[in-house]
Design a protein that fits this description.
heterodimer, A: mainly beta, 6-stranded mixed beta sheet, globular, B: mainly beta, 7-stranded mixed beta sheet, 11 strands, 0% helix
């Protein structure tokens, strides 16, 4: 099945550092979503983006919808231990009624080194 | 408002058996989507239901089927289980109304096929 290219695959950082990850697609999406997943749990929605060029923040998290509509970026500032987990981007082709399918990225595993 | 619930959380079956998983969406959400998550393939879209009708379908064999009831609750069935069906099965619900159609995930059902 299709997956979006997400990088980096994994990150090892120290507490307090900033984090950046991105997601690219060969096709256009009208909605980009970022999720975080903890072990044994379902993904939790962090940020939703609906417009090309849009920059949206949620606390220490900031995400951007690329102007080409084929990429998105997520930044986490001043990381804390609870940021540990796997981050997924997801693209949705249409915001219109009738197309709810999400295509997910390959995930970025974030680890904080003590 | 209660989140998406999935039952059971864990399931162990043997090859050849069939299994039924259940999902209750967030109250008021009309769309339910199912995803399979494996280490090798990541998160893959199975199908989406809205108003008791399947609107979208991923690239999975016919052994995977689902349905949605009038109260929006959904079930997913896998027949003739294979070892490769071992995965975390995730259900997500959305309002599917208007432009903003974020999907919210349940905790998943961990299926192990022996």
């Amino acid at each position: 099945g299709q997956q979006l290219n997400q990088s980096p695959q994994s990150m090892f950082i120290q507490e307090g550092e900033d984090v950046s990850m991105n997601c690219t697609s060969s096709s256009i999406f009208n909605t980009w979503l970022w999720y975080k997943q903890d072990p044994g749990e379902g993904p939790v929605l962090l940020i939703a983006l609906y417009k090309a060029g849009e920059l949206t923040s949620n606390g220490r998290l900031t995400a951007q919808f690329g102007i080409t509509r084929k990429d998105s970026f997520l930044n986490i500032s001043a990381s804390i231990p609870s940021d540990v987990g796997i981050y997924f981007c997801a693209g949705q082709a249409s915001t219109n009624f009738g197309n709810e399918k999400l295509t997910f990225g390959t995930g970025t595993r974030l680890t904080i080194i003590p | 408002k209660a989140g998406v619930t999935q039952t059971p959380r864990y399931l162990i079956k043997t090859r050849g058996q069939q299994v039924t998983l259940s999902c209750s969406p967030i109250s008021g959400h009309r769309s339910v989507s199912w995803y399979q998550q494996t280490p090798g393939q990541g998160l893959q879209f199975l199908f989406e239901y809205f108003s008791e009708t399947q609107r979208n379908k991923g690239n999975f064999p016919g052994r995977f089927s689902g349905r949605q009831f009038s109260n929006s609750r959904s079930e997913m069935n896998v027949s003739t289980l294979e070892l490769g069906d071992s995965a975390l099965y995730l259900c997500a619900s959305s309002l599917a109304s208007g432009r903003y159609n974020e999907q919210f995930f349940g905790p998943g059902t961990r299926l192990t096929v022996l």
